[in-house]
Design brief:
Blueprint (H helix, E strand, L loop, with lengths): L1 H17 L3 H14 L15 H4 L3 H30 L1 H34 L8 H23 L5 H11 L1 H4 L7 H17 L1 H11 L6 H11 L16 H25 L6 H10 L9 H16 L7 H12 L7
Helix pairs in contact: 4-5, 5-6, 6-12, 13-14
Length: 335
C-alpha cells in the first residue's frame, strides 16, 4: 500500500510537470504566434540586456545635454535681442557694437598669441615676419595699451560703474576702434587728423631754419618750395605729454617699425592689400585717407615706399619729415 501510494504521488508530480494546466496552456498559445518560443524557452526579461542597444553611453549623454543647452541658450538669446531691439533700440545698437567688439578683440588676442608663439618656437624676430603679422602685432600693442588704462581705473571697488559711464562719454579717448560705430570711425579719424595738423607749422618752421645750412642751391630752392606749401596734417599720432628722453625713444621706435613695415609691404606688393588695408596704411603714414579714393591711396602709398625703401637706418629721421612733406603736398587731402 505504502509503495503504491508513493508511485502514484510520483506519477502525479511528473504528470503535472509534463501536462500544464489550462491557464498555462492558454498563456503559452497566446504568446507563441508572436514570440515563436517553445515550451521552456527563456522569457524576454530573463535574457541578458546589452547596454549599448538599450541605453546611451555616458559620452553621448553629455553631448546631447550640451547640444540641448546650446540650443536653448540660442533661443533665449534671440528672444532677448528681439526684446532689446523692439523696446530699447538705441541701447540695442550700443550693446551689439560692444559684443561684436569683444569678439573681434578676443580674436585679435588669439592671433597675436599664435604669432608670438611662432616667433618664440622658431626664433623669429619682428622684422622677419610678414607684413600682415607685423601690422597686427603693432596695432594690437596699441589696443592693449589703451585697454590697460581702463583696467587700472576699474580696480577700486564699484569703480566699474564709473568706467562704463566714462566709456559712454569719452569713446574716442578710452575705446579702441572695435567699439566705435561706423560714423564714429570716420569722425574720430578726422579729429585725430586735425590734431596732427596743429603741430605741423612748428615742424615746417624747423625746416625753414635749416634751409640756410644747405650748401646746394638746387636743394635749397626745393626745400623753400616745400615749406611754402600749406600744412594739412601732422607727422605722427604720438602723445607729446612725455619727458623728452621718452619722447625721443618713442619716435625712434615708431619710425623703425614703420620702416620695417615698408620693407615687408614692398616685398608683399601693394596690389595684394585690401582696400581697408590700403587706407589704414596711408593713414598711419600721415595721409587722411578716409575721404580719398582707393586708387589715389595706392598711388600715394607707392610713392611713399619708393622713398622709404631707399633710406638707410642712419637716415630714418628723414622718414618723419617724409610723413609731413608727402602729406601736405597731396592735392587730394581734405582740409
Amino acid at each position: 500500500m505504502a509503495l503504491s501510494r508513493v508511485c502514484w504521488a510520483r506519477a502525479g508530480l511528473w504528470g503535472s510537470a509534463v501536462t500544464p494546466g489550462p491557464y498555462v496552456t492558454r498563456k503559452l498559445q497566446l504568446a507563441r504566434p508572436r514570440a515563436g518560443l517553445a515550451w521552456g524557452a527563456p522569457r524576454l526579461f530573463d535574457l541578458p540586456c546589452r547596454s549599448s542597444n538599450l541605453h546611451l553611453s555616458p559620452k553621448a549623454d553629455v553631448k546631447s545635454l550640451i547640444s540641448y543647452v546650446v540650443t536653448k541658450t540660442k533661443v533665449i538669446n534671440g528672444k532677448y535681442h528681439r526684446f532689446l531691439g523692439r523696446h530699447f533700440p538705441r541701447f540695442y545698437v550700443l550693446y551689439t557694437i560692444f559684443m561684436k567688439g569683444l569678439q573681434m578683440f578676443w580674436a585679435d588676442a588669439k592671433k597675436a598669441r599664435r604669432i608670438k608663439t611662432y616667433m618664440w618656437k622658431h626664433n623669429v624676430k619682428f622684422h622677419q615676419l610678414s607684413y600682415r603679422e607685423m601690422e597686427h602685432l603693432r596695432q594690437f600693442r596699441r589696443d592693449v595699451t589703451k585697454c590697460l588704462f581702463l583696467g587700472i581705473i576699474s580696480i577700486p571697488p564699484f569703480a566699474n560703474y564709473l568706467v562704463f559711464l566714462l566709456m559712454y562719454l569719452f569713446p574716442r579717448q578710452l575705446l579702441i576702434q572695435h567699439f566705435w560705430t561706423p560714423k564714429q570711425q570716420i569722425d574720430f579719424l578726422d579729429i585725430y587728423h586735425a590734431l596732427r595738423k596743429q603741430s605741423h607749422p612748428e615742424i615746417l618752421g624747423y625746416l625753414e631754419r635749416v634751409i640756410p645750412l644747405v650748401s646746394d642751391a638746387g636743394l635749397r630752392w626745393h626745400m623753400t618750395e616745400l615749406c611754402t606749401k600749406k600744412a594739412l596734417s601732422r607727422a605722427m599720432l604720438l602723445t607729446p605729454y612725455l619727458p623728452s628722453f621718452l619722447l625721443r625713444h618713442r619716435l625712434k621706435t615708431h619710425t623703425t617699425v614703420i620702416h620695417q613695415l615698408d620693407k615687408a609691404l614692398a616685398k608683399l606688393g601693394i596690389g595684394h592689400l585690401t582696400p581697408q588695408e590700403v587706407k589704414s596704411a596711408c593713414y598711419l603714414r600721415g595721409l587722411n585717407s578716409t575721404h580719398i579714393a582707393e586708387e589715389r591711396c595706392r598711388t600715394w602709398l607707392g610713392e611713399w615706399l619708393q622713398i622709404s625703401c631707399s633710406l638707410k637706418e642712419a637716415e630714418l629721421s628723414l622718414l618723419l619729415h617724409n610723413v609731413v612733406l608727402l602729406s601736405i603736398n597731396y592735392t587730394g587731402s581734405r582740409r
